[in-house]
Amino acid sequence: MKALFCMGVGAFMMHDKTHAWLYRDDIGAFWGIKGYEEQVTEVGTHRGHMSWPQYRFLGTFDSGSVRRGFLVFARNCANCHGIMYKKYDILLDKAYKQLELAALVGGTFSIHPAHHHFKQYYYQEWDERDRYIHDRIYPPYFSQDQAKNANGGVWPVDFSKIRLRPGGINYVYNILTGYHYKPYAGLDIPKGKAFNPYFDHMIIGMPKQLHDGLLDYEDGTPASAPQMAYDVSNFIQFVQRRAGYRAPDKHVRYYMFLTGYFLLLPFAYIKTRAFYRNNLSVRWELYSVRDGVYYNHFKKAQQQSRAIQFRGVFWA
User: Fold this and answer.
1) Residues linked to residue 204 through DSSP beta bridges, in sequence order
2) Secondary-structure percent of the chain, ordered helix, strand, coil, rounded to 5
3) If we measure between CA atoms, which residue out of 270, 263, 304, 261 comes closest to residue 285?
């Protein structure tokens, strides 16, 4: 047996080159990537390293975090990305007041007539202007071709449906904080690309965007890279369709309905089991009582089952 093992080792060492086949079936999986399990913020679907208040019991979005996240988006992410399915006024009452949001949007962004090719002809505009809060969150590019030409052939994804990516809000946070890991041996990173183990195929066209002290928060929160990633992830999740700002209210209505259902369940049991009856709604059958195969089931199923007790009873 030992001789066979030595022969196998010798035959293996005779080859000059060995090929390592890397098979990955967990690209984009929210339960982690083989070899990088300790890096993920979501293991399974019920636990993680981060604490998102909107996912607690009867929890809601952190208003301060959503407000700071929009600032990060406006100063950094909006240079390439957009959220075309939503408008800026979605932030009203939760993160901004109307006048301060209008001042921030109007002083930061502009809208070009080329953006209006999404609208009907009658509603198109012909002059570039500052944006209003009732405008859609358009990207700076007018088309996907223009965006690809400016970003090395890669279109910066629209954030309107980013919630559909595996991992949800943790996917966004992982992407923004996963640039400090080095690629494994044998993986060549093309020029202009970056290694990120949380992205599909681990090679991403977006370089690292968030650096410590990139901007100053107006509430005095230290603008570290993880803090900015946390805030902008909250903002992007807040503007989503089903998992966004309407989700906490939907959960409250769900628990209200569920509580009412279980509170009424004992009363429904008492009523249907005939432990309680309204005498005015019960019909006492006096003359339609018969003995027979067809009428036997009335004694158990119908409300005139007590009529058998009145057989032979004379009424004045």
Assistant:
1) 194
2) 45, 5, 50
3) 304
Pull the structure tokens for residue 45: 């679907």
Query: Tens digit of pLDDT for each residue in 73-94?
Result: 999 999 999 999 999 999 999 9
| C-alpha dihedral, 126 to 131 to 136 to 140, nearest 10° | 80
SS3 label, residue 194 = strand
CB 239 within 8 A of CB 245: yes
Q: What angle do CA 112, 116, 117 make, to 5 degrees?
A: 125
- Among 26, 58, 52, smallest CA distance to 249 is for 58
**Alpha helix (H) residue ranges in 216-311:** 225-238, 247-272, 298-301
Residue tagged 């859609």 (tokens)? 136
Is residue 237 a contact partner of residue 163, using CB atoms and an 8 Å limit? yes
pTM for the full model? 0.71
Amino acid, single-letter form, for residue 72: V
Distance CA 240, CA 288 (A): 64
CA distance 52 to 247: 13
